[in-house]
Amino acid sequence: MKIAIIGAGSIGLLFGGYLGKKNTITMMVRNKEQSYHLATEGITVVKEDVNFTTAVNTHVLGDTLGDMDLVIVAVKQYHLSGIKPILNSLKRNIPLLFLQNGMGHIEMLQELNSETILVGSVEHGALKINENTVKHNGIGQTNFALFRGEYSNAESLVSEEIPSFPFSYHLHWEEVLVKKLMINAIINPLTAVLKVQNGQLITNSYFYTLLKEYFYELHSVFSFMDKQLVFNEIMKVCRNTSENKSSMLNDILHNRQTEIDAILGYIIGRAKSEKIQVPITRTLFQMVKGMEGGSGE
């Protein structure tokens, strides 16, 4: 397939590196220096056992994009509004796959022109090393589902069976996003506030008690989800990425904007509409906003 990827952060680079093994990849970026490195050196994926480099094409974000079988949108959720005009300039028959954390972008997806829209969640651990190098910290899978439209080329990602980079297609998009939302809502703010690696949330008895109490609160907002299944997934992620720093902790340590609004902001809004009290969620939200320099207003 011919696949374009918007965004060349850790997730964009990871997808470009792996999918480029069996597809023609075009990385859509704004940064000219990054575009040069990607075009001349390709994407290097660093793993514990082996490193590999994938050749990719580059495209200046905003220029007219030719025919593609799929466009993967891998920018942070708070950058989506800035690229909305670009997304609406694409041919309507090109499927879009969104890989953002949280669920704050769902309303915006309804305003796009594209006929086929898919949403996904990424379980892999990834860390951007430089403009064209990404470290694959933890192997997981990409779960995705149809948000709008009909069966598209994107589903063929499942049958490609790229080693260490599996895809799983699901029937219900909300369940895919809510499960990842709950995982992110637990691990990201707790590790950011406590300034610990993911694994310490379950190896430290006090942090683990806090995690469980917080999980019960979150599940009250999403009671339709299988409680034990989601909790087991959270435990699995903590174990599989035990030595990793969460993306939110990394953002705090590097004085970058976090995705707290897209994750906890959405949950607080949903809880309010359903008249559910979420004191731990609200406390963590205010703490992270304060740590990133926000006013909390």
Notes on the protein architecture:
- The chain has 297 residues and is α/β, with parallel strands linked by helices.
- The protein has two domains: 2-171, 3-Layer(aba) Sandwich (Rossmann fold); 176-291, N-(1-d-carboxylethyl)-l-norvaline Dehydrogenase, domain 2.
- 43% of the residues lie in helices and 20% in strands.
- The protein has twelve helices and twelve strands.
- The strands form two sheets. The chain has an eight-stranded mixed beta sheet.
- Helix 6 (173-194) packs across helix 10 (247-253) and helix 6 (173-194) packs across helix 12 (279-291).
- It is globular.
- The relative contact order is 0.12.
Summarize the structure in short.
With 297 residues, this protein is an alpha/beta fold.
